[in-house]
């Protein structure tokens, strides 16, 4: 044999024609006697320079791996081929490498450089596969390399590579959990990705690495909702499960009012009646009804909550059972009771799938039927059992049928059960008998019928059936024993035949317990049992002792001797439990001189009234686990299970999900063509830039979090998502949602006409279309557009209309419309601005301060305040069409950026903004002055506006603004409050209260507002700077934006980003003639932090071709770092 | 998510293993074998088995257990659905999904599994994408190549399909290529078909639209007390088939344990009775309305045993060509974005699913 294989070897090595014949079984290597020579043939093939030989060898090796055979000794030979040109060979080498790299770490390192090269390949597939393999090699040494690769791939052009990066994140995390923080950064970045390809994978990574960081989801929530339908199936499951958890933390319980009225299972009927009908009208009626019913404050569903429900619903029709289940559990946990019904049909459909699918679905249905029985009642017949169903399915179906049983359907169900009892599957029959017992306990009307049926089963030929019946009857009889003495008699007779210990024990217990109902038979039974005592099973013996004791207490005349006899037998039993019991009982019941006080109570002890057992479903209360989860199925917490949180008492701030609308700003900037605009404010300018970029970079996303609802545009309409096309859809969708919810609040205000139209549209508009369909869709959309346009002309501009026109504009197809839009709302806005400006000035004079001489550089002073103000109102006019006619609130100066504190929608008409006025706060010099503007957009007056319940980080202080007694409808007001932020960007959270409502709001300062200008000379500056070196100095190189390479621009940018004053250059040489301006000037700025008066020194040194170096010296390193970031951003964009 | 996969055949051999993360020893399958022993029937092995360190989630198809090893929380249906997708893919690639087919194509199987999961999370599960990445084995390859060549143009097109009387459809589920919203709004199926065969939609007809079952069964099966003989009489007939022939009729039944043998006489077709498993199977063929097929005769029972208390249940399979018993009709098929004129055709067929008659 060895010769023949040696021959093969030779041939393999030298043959140049055709493929050599090899034994198919790679284990044939085993024919060599020594291990040393094992796999030599394979090694030789791998070393050859023929791809076909290599491929053959690799195929055989992979076959070995597949069979679980050890092929690790081939590692050196295989790893050499990692750079093989042949793609087939390469693929298999990768398979091998991933399998064995962990065992051969050092050798595996040899392959790393190949993958690093692959990461730079122009072909996206090669980049992706390189990253995939690299991240699958579980070798700790390469963690830094993996990290780098992941970071790079996360910003790759190709979404496929980015998807692979998302996949790699959990791999690296499991290899080295220390990398968590860095990985979270990558996750955050990828979460902002707008392609459906990435969405599922990154959420999966999120769930594995940082499921607790729910805050990362806020900004992406609406996008995820809108992308969901186009994500691949597996990603859908992960996203839906995650969003279920998210929603539980962010929204209010939609059933909060009902849960007060709920009375167990009885209330189900009413809700079922309407679950088929999805009519919006009816829904509204119901809502109104609920509102009037509940004396508590009316529940209004958050539009984002509604968005989730609406966008997941179509997925109930997915072919993928896991997706359907995910949506079903989402609805079960999140939807208003009246809407949950839709999931029943879909779940019932899954019952026609594979038996494993049925198994899981039935478990979940069983849990659901306990809480929401009515939902599945119409599908009762779908749970009927086929004789071919596997037993485990049969038992689950029985469970569901039992849960569904009620007075009306019980006769049908019992008839069905009757046929099941005839089944040949005895386990199933036993379960059916148990089920009948449960029906009997739950439904009083059929108790006697069931009992009779079960008694008939006592004469069944199958002993198991009889035994099971006895056990169930025992439980039933405990409910009304007096009525059923004949049944007890009947069962007493069974002791002659029935052998199943449990059944015998049950009968004996019954007779003992109710011996007074069968006074003649009971002693006779004891007599028979005494006879057979020694041959009984232990549980039966124990019950014989019990029976004896009970009879002795009630009928000692007849049974005294028998009891003595039984107790004596038991005294010498082999089982010590029985011996103990006998001794104990003897002491208790037989009166002796020594017997204690207890024996007086023996009768009470033994014959106390025992409560009837409650026959409960094993699925009761299982819904505290998230349905569809592994933990729910096992009814035990599985590793990595994320608890489903309880609904919050009060909804957290919904504005965290707001996303800025960049497109809107862009349009305005292009339209207004005001030259000063470019100078206006660095922040706004930054934004202008942003729109041109297809994707938001990481840092922007971060700054977005603090800037939040920067623009005046309706934040609800501002969600962005996916492709451009789908964004336009969702935008209009959103705004409709907003208008809808508004209608609920101010029903009298809104016209009813408006109501009907938007209701129908979202379905089509929000549909995210693929580009191929674009052509077909456009005409349709246009016609719809024109419809809504005409509508808008007749009425005052409705919200849905305005935002819809935006979506239209964004396609850049209707320039006319654009102009029209611009013309209409801006005019009244202009007037409003003028009026407002006057007001503002007056208020400013009140704040006139003498002890402070601000040292603003002239550049900062806004020359363009009027124009930019009008722009702000312009924006407002576009999105908040109604309120634009009212006097709008604006920032006092364009240089100061306003932030939204309370949105008009969430504030129920009250909108609040704030800005950092950069004036010192009069009462406390350590506080930052925050100017707050209130606008009452509603039709009713708002009274007693004040702050309450201020929640601060330690050390922070707040000086509340004085209460505003009355804010009439349509009016605005301004107030100033002071906040001591303790030189940190922590948020100040508090409640804004009106006479009717409370709103949770928060203020978070940009780092630049935490300081005030400080005047110093260049010399002083340099001296101070010299003392703030080392850790206190942060330097960054940058390339200045083309537009800000002159002095004017740079100074303006810096002073807008941070409240600093410019250090006059060369002021130390006042006397001498001014030197010629240096070629590369250096700009210096100085300030002190508000609380601790720490110096903040900023230096911008320009260099050749727009290069520059930014230096910040500050004692407070955190402030320094953040400031560098902000200024860097201001200067580069 | 999915850590490892083990394929186990009917005799309890692990014949393939694949790991997506660190290797999990195959000894973990011992817990599966224990559960298998406890189960009376192969299909009664619980799909989810907890073990001290892992969870085993399995599906049984073609007498092969596909056992996935899970380490932490994951929706069980997610894994089950994925495993079924794996089986479907194997079937698609090798024509059958048997132990022999998997062993013969072990390299392709391995490559497929590698592509379908990355780190335990599904990556590519669509057959058309997979076929671009991994070629099916040689015999099928040539065939598939020509077919895909033909269909290569299809991804561009977009076809709305109108169905008549959508009210009829009580419940539908779709292939992901269908645009859900269009269906909801206009009851038009608009989709871009993927390559190859695929199931566009499945529907369920509500019980309100009573669909007449096209076959009826007349039976008379009696066991007499004390006698060792039982009478067996079964007749099938068509019902409301609009002149279409009911064909490929197959009746099977599990007879009571007391039946020793059956001596029956079919008017057409052939029947078999396995005295060990007590499985009766009658291959009827077509039902001729003029001459109804019947199966009559006697059963011999265990002597002295009392009569069985249950009557057998009959599983009936059948097909009807050119008719959709649900009344579903495809109204029209439009195609957009393609210049060529396609051949359109529709073929209706009714096939019994799980149809049981209790006696």
Automatic annotation (TrEMBL), chain B:
Subcellular location as annotated:
Cytoplasmic vesicle membrane; Golgi apparatus
The UniProt entry's GO CC annotations, sorted and at most eight, read: clathrin adaptor complex; cytoplasmic vesicle membrane; Golgi apparatus
* GO BP term, example: intracellular protein transport
Q: Which domain of life is it from?
A: Eukaryota
Q: Which InterPro entries match?
A: Adaptor_comp_med_subunit, AP2_Mu_C_sf, AP_mu_sigma_su, Clathrin_mu, Clathrin_mu_CS, Longin-like_dom_sf, MHD
Keyword annotations for this protein, in alphabetical order, are: Cytoplasmic vesicle, Golgi apparatus, Membrane, Protein transport, Transport
The segment(s) forming the MHD domain are 118-358
Does Transport appear among the keywords? yes
Topology versus the membrane, per the UniProt entry?
Answer: Peripheral membrane protein
Provide the family line: Belongs to the adaptor complexes medium subunit family.
What name does the UniProt record give this protein? MHD domain-containing protein
